Amino acid sequence: MKKNIRIKDIAKKAGVSVGTVDRVLHNRGEVSVVTKEKILSIVKEFDYRPNILARALTLKKVYTFAVLIPYADNNNPYWAYPLKGILHAEQNLKDYNIKIEKFFFNQNSKKEFRIQFENLIKLNPQGVLLAPVFSDEVQEFTSKLQGNDIPFVFINSDKTNSKRLCFIGQDGFQSGLVAGRLASINLNKNDTILVVNITGDYKSKEHFVNRNNGFSHYFKEKPYKIIQIELKDNFTHVFDSVIAANPSVRSIYVTSSKVYKVAEYLKENSLKHIQLIGYDLIEANVKYLNHEYIDFLISQNSVKQGSKGINYLFKAVVKNETIEKQDLMPIDIITKENVKYYGA
Amino acid sequence: MKKNIRIKDIAKKAGVSVGTVDRVLHNRGEVSVVTKEKILSIVKEFDYRPNILARALTLKKVYTFAVLIPYADNNNPYWAYPLKGILHAEQNLKDYNIKIEKFFFNQNSKKEFRIQFENLIKLNPQGVLLAPVFSDEVQEFTSKLQGNDIPFVFINSDKTNSKRLCFIGQDGFQSGLVAGRLASINLNKNDTILVVNITGDYKSKEHFVNRNNGFSHYFKEKPYKIIQIELKDNFTHVFDSVIAANPSVRSIYVTSSKVYKVAEYLKENSLKHIQLIGYDLIEANVKYLNHEYIDFLISQNSVKQGSKGINYLFKAVVKNETIEKQDLMPIDIITKENVKYYGA
DNA sequence: TATAATTTCGTGTGCGAACACGGCAATAAA
DNA sequence: TTTATTGCCGTGTTCGCACACGAAATTATA
Q1: Taking a C-beta distance cutoff of 8 angstroms, is the pair A198, A164 a contact?
Q2: How far separated are the first and last CA of chain B, in Å rounded?
Q3: How much is the mean pLDDT over chain B?
Q4: Has domain A172-299 been given CATH number 3.40.50.2300?
Q5: CA of B29 to C1' of C26 (A)
Q6: Distance, angstroms, CA B28 to C1' D12?
Q7: Closest C1' nucleotide to B60's CA
Q8: CATH top class, domain B7-49
Q9: What are phi and psi of B129, to 5 degrees?
């Protein structure tokens, strides 16, 4: 393990001054082709990597990253968690002069999304982390970013067509498979499984479609009856009739973090014999998990998604490292017994 | 979010030079009580934290950490994983002049452990990460470390009596509960569950005792029969008779990472109707998980344990931060469907 | 009072990288 | 030949911190 080579060392080897080496490294011209070539070859040979500590120290320049995600509220607590991770990463990178500007929008409002991304663009950040909720708007937005040479990272869901730096999230299909495995526990032949999609006005459904597909795929050639229903936020009435019409329902799979709403329903109607599986460790879900109305939660590590997003921007923009185009988070299986280790 | 205060700022506020501030901060004396008090109060008021970038840059001093863990081999692949994490963390901290010296010993040889820790002591590292396998020897070792003011971190298992900086590992009891939950899936009343302890010559059993206790606790007041057996590495013969004597065994819980040996047995004897649960994502286990001879693996994040261990030493020794006395890793539940996300 | 010993404090240098600035040579324009 | 203009390159400073060195102020001793 030998020491890292420094600019000074390169200069000595090339028989020039550090200033010259620096000019080559930063493409600031004013260097003859001959010496440039020579320096570059040395750089390559000894695998020069700038000492980022020294760089961060000397650069008064503050890197600004921007985040564009939905805001969280009572009816939509999910996005509080990625935000937590983002703040955590910000804290971690404080020494490196990284500032993170946050822009929030209503998950159901394309208009707000558009307003916020206009604001964001004005800021001219060095990198962007965003949740690509509305396909068309995202397309438009990312084109602009590309035009300004601003790299961007997707979080939570993906739009493969765009030239993102990276996507951080979960493989929805695969998590559907896991859900299938969990939903079929303790079931008897001919029992019924209910799949519940609570999407509200949510427009970007790809995520949920993948989960459904994975789930269905798991049950090919398995002897269970599966019913799928689509619900709005306020669904008690609809649910009553579905349950009444299907008394053999023994297992429910909710494809989103709103599983706590179904849990609430099960509790109020004393339906503890029905297994319940859903997504994400938000507070309400954890409560029902502990009270055994929810049997399994699938976590997509939303907090970590946030911190990873920022860290990838840091690596790519500040450290100039190449990063993987995709980081699929583990599909954590959470029960009452192990939930306490996934909290913070 | 205002700028961090610097030594220079403190100096100005106190009406002294940076040298004086520095002397106070590092307790190098040669400062009058009055000015010392004044400086300390300013430090406190403005929550001064040294810029670790600048510090790492200026300190030619190389921090040396030492690691003392069992080595991995074919019959004992486990420790390859924490080592992986350790190497990863080392890579990450390269810029900070951290060197990590590794010392390995045979898991069953107190003699080797002793030899290696003598070697380690000679190195006089700034911090130590160790697996406290042999109680008495560890006691002796850690006393010496304390005598030399060398902080140390435990990994994988704990010895609460010693003055460790921190313990990183899993709550064995709690993981036993999780195993209980998983082992009782799809069971009928009066089915039998077999608990298998494969400990070899392994002397430090606390870890496994905790897992057993947690498992037993889960089954209090549950209508299943539970049998516990203790096996050496070569157990085929014994196992034959146990299975023969208990045809109602429908679920097996192996309390260690050697569950692949039981899986092998199940495969050779075509006992696919028996559920199998064990620990750790070592290669052999993953293979049988994919072939559905193992139903669930409980992962204790051994790789991450390694990297965390080093990072805690870094935080405590280099950054001078206080750290939690204990970091309990999540109890990851792994199935065929989600295993691929826990690999690296 | 003069000198030595000690306490108390300030200054200067270096870590590695970034960049402004200025210098020297070769060539072009006067 | 003199004066600009350009191409090419070296020097010096800065970032925040650590530490060596030495200077001043204070106290002790002759």
Answers
A1: no
A2: 37
A3: 89
A4: yes
A5: 60
A6: 33
A7: C15
A8: mainly alpha
A9: -115, 125
Q: Strand C: which positions are within 7 A of a protein CB? A: 7-12, 14-21
Contact B53 A53 (CB under 8 A): yes
- Interatomic CA–C1' length for residue A152 and nucleotide C19, angstroms: 28
Decide: A93 and A129 in contact? Cβ < 8 Å. no
Q: Where are the domains of chain A?
A: 7-49, 63-170+302-330, 172-299
Strand C–CB A22 distance below 7 A: yes
**Do A63-170+302-330 and A172-299 fold alike per CATH?**
yes
The end-to-end CA distance of chain A, in Å, is 37
Rg of the Cα trace of chain B?
25
Query: Confidence class of residue B60 from pLDDT cuts 50, 70 and 90?
Result: low
**CATH label, A63-170+302-330, candidates 2.60.120.1440, 3.40.190.150, 3.40.50.2300, 3.40.30.10:** 3.40.50.2300
pLDDT digits (tens, 9 = 90+) for A111-145: 999 999 999 999 888 899 999 988 889 999 999 99
Residue A200 pLDDT: 63
Residue type present at position A24 = V
Q: Which has the closest alpha carbon to B82: B115, B131, B119? A: B131
For strand D, is any atom closer than 7 Å to the CB of B51?
A: yes
Give the residue among A198, A170, A185 at the shortest CA–CA distance from A299. Answer: A170
The nucleotide minimizing the C1' distance to residue B18's CA is C10
Res B152 pLDDT > 60: yes
Hey, are the CB atoms on A337 and B57 less than 8 Å from each other? no
Q: Which 3 state secondary structure label does DSSP give B38?
A: helix
CATH tag for B63-169+302-330 (out of 1.10.287.3510, 3.40.50.150, 3.40.50.1110, 3.40.50.2300):
3.40.50.2300
A335 with B181: Cβ contact below 8 A: yes
Query: Which positions in chain B touch A332 (Cβ < 8 Å)?
Result: 330, 332-333, 338
The string of pLDDT tens digits covering residues B289-344 is: 999 999 999 998 999 999 999 999 988 887 777 889 999 999 999 999 999 998 75
- Kindly determine whether residue B52 and residue A342, on different chains, have CB atoms separated by under 8 Å: no
The model's confidence at residue A2, banded by pLDDT at 50, 70 and 90, is low
Q: Rounded to an integer, what distance in angstroms lies between the CA atom of residue A12 and that of residue A341?
A: 53
Q: Which residues of A280-313 are buried (b: 16+ CB within 10 A; e: fewer)?
A: bbbebbbebbeeebbbbbbbbbbbbbbbbbbbbb
Considering only residues 131 to 190 of chain A, which have any Cβ-Cβ distance to chain B shorter than 8 Å?
171, 174-175, 177-178, 180-181, 185-186
The string of DSSP codes covering B161-187 is: TS--SEEEE--HHHHHHHHHHHHTTTP
**B76-101 confidence digits (pLDDT tens):** 888 999 999 999 998 878 777 788 99
| CB atoms A338 and B329 under 8 Å | no
B15 inside 8 A of chain A by CB? no
Give the long-range contacts of residues A270-275, CB within 8 A, separation 24 or more. A271/A243, A274/A249, A274/A250, A275/A183, A275/A185, A275/A186, A275/A250, A275/A251
Q: Is the pLDDT of residue B267 over 60?
A: yes
The radius of gyration of chain A's CA atoms, rounded to the nearest angstrom, is: 25
